[in-house]
């Protein structure tokens, strides 16, 4: 199975897992501390904010459902008016880093106030719609490298996007411009993810406390509730 190696190398159950906040702070250069749900207000007098995705910007998620403390992710590539790639941690799996995975705008106004995000274990777009505050723009746009640091919690790189797929999606986005895709339209192509085996070098060997079957069951339950 494509992601089997990731589950072998998951952080040990009960161990501190890498959170989205320190990962986003390092990768974006947006120097804000505290829970993700506070970032939007904290940024008001320190950074520019808006509703247009830009490379290196932080997308701040509102608390919703089980995501009680919000979430933050960093924009890595713009694919079109309603599609982009993001980098974030602690989303699909506790402590996991997902680099350059798909996020789509499903808001009625096309302002990225509601998004759906790629779910690596099931290789599909997540079933849940996630409300957001908007984007926080760093003083110096760009992406910074993230080096695993045990002091920040156990982590793995669950998956990375295949460069060939990313290039094809980008080409399709340019070909479709300038027309924006309808909010309810399905993206013309979904990225397939491949394992980054470098995870073995810095991840715990103990299995996760939650199995892949449990997470898939959660996604299916979420879909039925909607």
Automatic annotation (TrEMBL):
<protein>
    <recommendedName>
        <fullName>Peptidase C51 domain-containing protein</fullName>
    </recommendedName>
</protein>
<dbReference type="InterPro" id="IPR038765">
    <property type="entry name" value="Papain-like_cys_pep_sf"/>
</dbReference>
<dbReference type="InterPro" id="IPR007921">
    <property type="entry name" value="CHAP_dom"/>
</dbReference>
<dbReference type="Pfam" id="PF05257">
    <property type="entry name" value="CHAP"/>
</dbReference>
<feature type="domain" description="Peptidase C51">
    <location>
        <begin position="1"/>
        <end position="116"/>
    </location>
</feature>
């Amino acid at each position: 199975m494509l992601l089997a190696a990731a589950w072998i190398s998951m952080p040990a159950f009960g161990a501190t897992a890498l959170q989205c906040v320190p990962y986003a702070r390092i990768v974006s250069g947006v120097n804000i501390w505290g829970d993700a749900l506070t970032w939007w207000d904290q940024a008001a007098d320190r950074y520019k904010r808006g509703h247009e995705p830009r490379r290196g910007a932080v997308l701040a998620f509102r608390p919703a459902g089980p995501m009680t403390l919000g979430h933050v992710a960093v924009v890595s590539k713009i694919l079109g008016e309603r599609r982009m790639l993001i980098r974030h941690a602690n989303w699909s799996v506790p402590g996991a880093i997902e680099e350059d995975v798909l996020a789509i705008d499903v808001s009625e106004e096309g302002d990225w106030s509601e998004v759906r995000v790629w779910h690596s274990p099931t290789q599909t777009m997540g079933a849940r719609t996630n409300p957001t505050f908007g984007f926080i723009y760093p003083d110096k746009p760009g992406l910074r490298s993230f080096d695993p640091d045990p002091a920040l919690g156990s982590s793995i790189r669950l998956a990375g996007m295949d460069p060939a797929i990313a290039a094809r999606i980008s080409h399709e986005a340019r070909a479709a411009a300038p027309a924006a895709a309808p909010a309810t339209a399905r993206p013309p192509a979904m990225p397939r993810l491949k394992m980054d085996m470098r995870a073995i070098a810095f991840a715990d060997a103990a299995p996760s406390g939650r199995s892949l079957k449990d997470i898939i069951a959660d996604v299916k339950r979420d879909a039925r509730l909607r």
